[in-house]
Amino acid sequence: MAFARLASSTLSAAIFALAASPAGAQTNPPGAVTALDAITTTATRTRAVSGDVAAPVTVVGREEIERRDARSVVDLIRDIPGVESSGVPRTTALQPVIRGLGDERIVLRTDGARNNFNAGHRGRTFVDPDLLRQVEVLRGPASTLYGSGALGGAISLRTIEVEDILQPGAAFGGTLGAGWQSQGSGPRGSLALGARAGDFSLLGAVAGFTNGNFTDGRGTTIPYTGDDAVSLLGKLGWNPGNHRFQLSALRFRDDHQIPISANTATTTGITDRDTVSENLSFRWSYEDEALPLFAPQLVLYRTHVDLTEQRLTGARVRDRTELTTIGLDAQNTSRFGLGPTRHALTFGTEIYRDEQEGRANGLARAQFPSAEQSVTAFFVQDEISLGAFTLTPGVRLDRFEQESPDGRNDRSSERASPRVALAWQVTPWLQPYVSYAEGFRAPSLTELYVAGQHFPGNTFVPNPNLRPEVSRNKEAGVNLRFSDVMQPGDRLRVRVAAFRNDLDDFIEQTVLRSTTVSANVAEARIEGVEAEAQYDAGLWYVGLGAAALKGDNLVTDEPLASIPAHRVTLSAGYRFLDQGVTVGGRITAAAEQDRAPNRPGVAQQTSGYGLVDLHAAWTPTFAPNVRLSVAVDNLFDHAYRRSNWNSDPAPPFYDVGRNIRGALRVSF
């Protein structure tokens, strides 16, 4: 394959760079800093330490991204408490699930640009993790800041910057990477180049991978899991004074043979799918400490997703599925004092338009109707500090204009989404908080206007009268932070949260004997407890993540099918700083999931499982610009299934078995 040749040439170039790079290029050894010390802007739209905000937000930084060597965004975040990946392990068909809610019930943004694409069973996260510097996951309703779709939460992807590529003070540099994994005999490669000249900067990067079919813990082939994906990234920056301008372009392409219902265990309805995602954005921000009332940010963007599918079985139909989103996101944060209180007042607007089109052999495809929607939103939030207390009220108003294919079922709607949180810094190490937040999801264009055949003998029935889904989340939590616990300079961070999310007008698709229809039929409740703990002593570190969730349909008094099993993840590692070696591992224990709807085709029980992963990395003292890493996932080749893709009868295969990975990265 073409990509295999790319990986081979990248590896050769990496070896050459290893010999030619100056010994002075080096990275300081890691200190006692946990992931809960990372800076986030997703939780409040202002910069904050993730472990200090009154919201459950988790940051996956560049170091963890490199260590995981993942091939999908979902693989990067699946260990976060309350987060799971949905579907069979077909890389680009995987979707994230936050607190039991997935698909369009999660807002996904890349560098501030919305990705609203959602076409049944086809995935949403179209970027190679090698091009990411940070992933931020906000759990719980987030419509106050991000509007429709944030019932379950929001995920922000941030791509690499020139600062991640260049050595301090360097005008030009880059990184080369190459890797391989035993599952699917899959090579991968990456190349990033950066340059600086005065106030200007330039970045260009490519990353991708190829692999054959995976095998499960019993050695059975998992059909149609092969992939051939490449991502391209380019950025041009200009930073005159306190201004920052940036133009960026991101393109992803994946070519593979896969079932139409790719995230299910089906092996029928095979298509040759070509997925192309393109993101073009312009960003401007201004920040001057002398002007605390004026800190604006603006993002103009265009996101386009185009899937072309040539069916290889049954009717030889050629389908095309397209969604284009053009939008603007603008905000300003003003910081000021008012009597005894301090304020960080953030206000702004978001305007975007979605245009979707479906074709089958060049003709209109009713299963993905050609329709449009326009959204205008205004939001305001004030972080009010009074002594040891911080009160954060906020509200957002969204107005939707949705246009049907024939113009006879156009509709408009409005929704206000409030949120309020109160945090109390009782002591320097103890911060309890409570919050109330509402989220909503407007019916999608497909749910409103879908028609045509679902499968032989069954047709879709449109429902233009659907009401928005609404969630009301009550949450209480506590943030703990300690230093010098066991030795000078160490850090311990802990977050525990309990929540109850009540959902009304839940949109549910029902398959009847001859029709399939979506309707507002359910009231649901999801509740649970999540915990994160991270300790870092410099030489060694330990992390713990745990979640126990329960979900019920309050109309039928049945469990919800999307709720993941209770899970605990324990990770630990040791850094041999004199040798530049880090070794570590992770243990994942998931409980049995026996709470499932009592319906045919839905598994009644999924067994519990335990997984052991090991990893090691070496940055030689004589070549500190080089990083060599090896890892083993699912060390004992355990056969297991996650509950959200199990079925009745059970699929003939399990999740991915043992996977041995190796990677080489060189900076120059």
Tell me how many strands there are: 38
Question: What structural category arises from helix and sheet content?
Answer: mainly beta
**CATH evolutionary superfamily:** TonB-dependent receptor, beta-barrel domain
Shape: globular
Estimate percent helicity: under 10%
Radius of gyration: 24 Å
Query: Could you name the CATH topology?
Result: Maltoporin, Chain A
β-strand amount: over 45%
**Chain-averaged pLDDT:** 90
List the keywords.
Maltoporin, Chain A, 6 helices, 22-stranded antiparallel beta barrel, 668 residues, mainly beta, single chain
Architecture overview:
The structure is a single chain. With 668 residues, the protein is mainly beta. The protein has one domain (2-667): Maltoporin, Chain A. Helix content is 7%, strand content 55%. The chain has a 22-stranded antiparallel beta barrel. A five-stranded mixed beta sheet has the order 3-9-10-7-8. Strand 25 and strand 26 (430-441) form a beta hairpin. The two termini are 28 Å apart. The relative contact order is 0.13.
List the helices and strands and how they pair.
Layout: H1 2-20, E1 39-40, E2 48-49, E3 57-61, H2 62-68, H3 73-77, E4 83-86, E5 95-98, E6 101-102, E7 106-110, E8 113-114, E9 132-139, H4 143-146, E10 153-159, H5 162-165, E11 172-181, E12 186-197, E13 200-211, E14 214-215, E15 221-222, E16 227-238, E17 243-259, E18 270-286, E19 296-311, E20 318-338, E21 341-360, E22 363-364, E23 371-386, E24 389-403, E25 411-424, E26 430-441, H6 445-449, E27 453-455, E28 458-461, E29 469-483, E30 491-511, E31 515-536, E32 540-553, E33 558-559, E34 567-576, E35 581-590, E36 609-618, E37 626-633, E38 659-667
